[in-house]
Amino acid sequence: MFLKDLLLVFLCAGVVVYLFHRLKIPTVVGLLATGIVVGPYGLQVVDDVHRVELLAEIGVVVLLFTVGLEFSLSRVVKMATMMLQVGVPQVGFSLLAGTVACMATGIAWNSSVFAGMLMAMSSTAIVIKLLADRGELGTPHGRISVAVLLFQDLLVVVCVLVVPLLAAESGQHHSFIWDVSQGLAMVLAITIVGRFVVPPLLYQIVQTRNRELFLICIFVICIGTAALTNMVDLSLPLGAFLAGLIIAESEYGHQTLAEVMPFRDTLSSLFFISVGMLLDINHLMTHGWSISLLLIAILLLKALTATVPSLLAGYSFRTAVLAGVSLAQIGEFSFVLAKSGLEVKLMTADQYQLFLAVSVLSMVATPLVLAGLPRLIDVIEQSPLVKSWQKYTPPEDDSIDELHGHVVIAGYGFNGRNLATVLKELKIPYVVLEMNPQTVRRERAQGQSIYYGDSGRESVLEHVHIEKAKALVVAINDPISARRTVQLARQMNPDLHIVVRTRYFTESFDLKRLGANSIISEEFETSLEIFAHVLREYHIPGNMINRLVANIRSDHYQAFRGQALGRTLLSFTPDGNLDAQFESCQLAPHSHAIGKTLGQLRLRNLTGVTIVAVKRKGQVVTNPAADLQLELGDVLVLLGQPEQFETAIELLELPAEGKEERPA
């Protein structure tokens, strides 16, 4: 029974993914492992694998649909430099190496090119999850990885188009050209219809304010476009990508993505499970040595194809290696291509099993290797060979030798840039260290005192005369580099005042131990702002809020652990009478208040409402005196309880003697 199989699949997936989460292994790997366990080569829990594969194919369609929705021309433009410097050579060399290696073993050229395509792709799901969990999305190697992954995602569509070309037999090229022409015509027709028909249609749907109708319409567009491309022998995923791209260009793209994401996560989970079901454990055990050697070769090769271009682009050894290893695994989109290749006989069943085994193992290996990689890089960087190779050669600049009592800023992001602007305005000497070569080149051309260099290296700190500096501000996104910078700077200058900006509160204790004087935690400062705003809403006195914030900071964050908080509040309980509000009232021409002073009105005595300001001809008089005479058109700002305002406004609206209230 299909429903029973589906229930068992999701039940096993929940258990396995939970266990993998506790072991800090990515969810994708857990889903693949679930498929291995419940599939025909495992415990044979699922009877009908083909029905699960049908749902999985829908999951692939939705997956490509969301890729199209997330596609943004501005993101591509922003990361274009990294894509060209690292993404193009990474994909190109991976494709070339895979093709040459397969042809050397006697595999046909078209199947060899197809194998190179499979090897070139990395796992967006795994890499983004790992970087996010480690807080490294904003680091230099994180930005490189994201740029390359985005470039690979764009190439998936090209690869989907190329697969039929590689599968075409020599006597069928004329037919293939006709099919491609039909396909291009269909893509053009879909684009035109999507540009001029879909936005007005969605506008009419949105006007109904019916969420279910909007969601149905979105799925009709997604599945319908995929079906149209399939009619001309193009793939379903390509049509789904085009549908996502069309909607992304409209004003409904963000809402569509939010609605589709839960379906994508659920259905794409079935895709990864179905891939795991096809992995033959016996084949893995039988060919263990060959699979292991191939796995090591692919991991090393793919790591090099990203590491070397990163080094040539001017990034440090640490950044380049971390980026290269992050991208070393085979990606989830390779599974999509592999299933297509198996159907059109670009790979045999044995080759498919070999691909599955190596791909799954590469995904499992990535988080394990990255966990110990930073320490390994530390050891490698201390070797004489690497030290001599990446010896720091500072640019010729005599002005830096004159620095004394200056500020060293490590990192020229948002915080570093603002600090540099203030220091320059106050004529306080400073020097900036930045790891992005493009930023350094651009800012130096504008006269900024900025140098390319890793602040975690002794020779770089020597060049900016850290021993003569008064302060060091560490504003970089890499927590490991931040700790190395603090430790090294403290050793080189014991009197240096070190200020570190960090993202997470838990990093503060290590930085303090290594020698930082002040740690500014984004997480901590945000929490202070939040509770300060909440307390103001309850009318806690401002001086008491300021005292509470000061005490928490001076206690080195200990108040959040239940200490000192009670002392700071001094048993203060908010008084309900403080729940006052503001209201305003403009004097009408008939009002008896015109010409009278505030003292003569006696508004506070009669209603309990206080006039705290008077707005007259664009000017505001705060705390007005009792002898202030009111004029026509004055706006009175009133302070009091909500129930008091009605009485006060009625009193102010009373007509003067001899005047009648006239309708406006």
Mean pLDDT across all residues, rounded?
80
**Low-confidence blocks of residues:** 170-174, 559-573
CATH architecture of the largest domain: Up-down Bundle
Domain count: the total is 4
Distance between the termini: 75 Å
Strands of the biggest beta sheet: in what spatial order? 3-2-1-4-5-6
Characterize the main sheet. 6 strands, parallel
CATH structural fold name of the largest domain:
Na+/H+ antiporter like fold
Strand pairing plus helix content: what structural class? alpha/beta
- How many distinct helices? 30
At a glance:
The protein is α/β, with parallel strands linked by helices and 664 residues long.
What does this structure look like?
The chain has 664 residues and is α/β, with parallel strands linked by helices. It is 64% helix and 7% strand. The chain has helices spanning 2-22, 27-38, 49-70, 73-78, 80-104, 109-120, 124-133, 140-167, 173-196, 198-207, 211-231, 236-248, 253-277, 281-286, 288-312, 317-326, 332-343, 349-381, 384-389, 414-425, 437-445, 458-463, 479-492, 508-514, 522-537, 542-554, 565-569, 598-601, 603-607, 642-653; strands at residues 407-410, 430-434, 450-452, 471-474, 497-502, 518-521, 581-586, 610-616, 619-622, 635-640. A 6-stranded parallel beta sheet has the order 3-2-1-4-5-6, with helices on both faces. Strands 7-10-8-9 form a 4-stranded antiparallel beta sheet, with helices on one face. Helix 23 (479-492) links the parallel strand 4 (471-474) and strand 5. Helix 6 packs antiparallel against helix 8 and helix 25 packs antiparallel against helix 26. It is globular and about 105 Å long. The chain starts with a helix and ends in an 11-residue tail after the last helix. Mean pLDDT is 80; it is low at 170-174 and 559-573. InterPro entries: Cation/H_exchanger_TM, Na+/solute_symporter_sf, NAD(P)-bd_dom_sf, RCK_C, RCK_C_sf, RCK_N. The chain crosses the membrane at residues 6-21, 52-74, 86-107, 113-132, 144-168, 180-202, 214-247, 292-315, 354-373. Residues 404-521 form the RCK N-terminal domain.
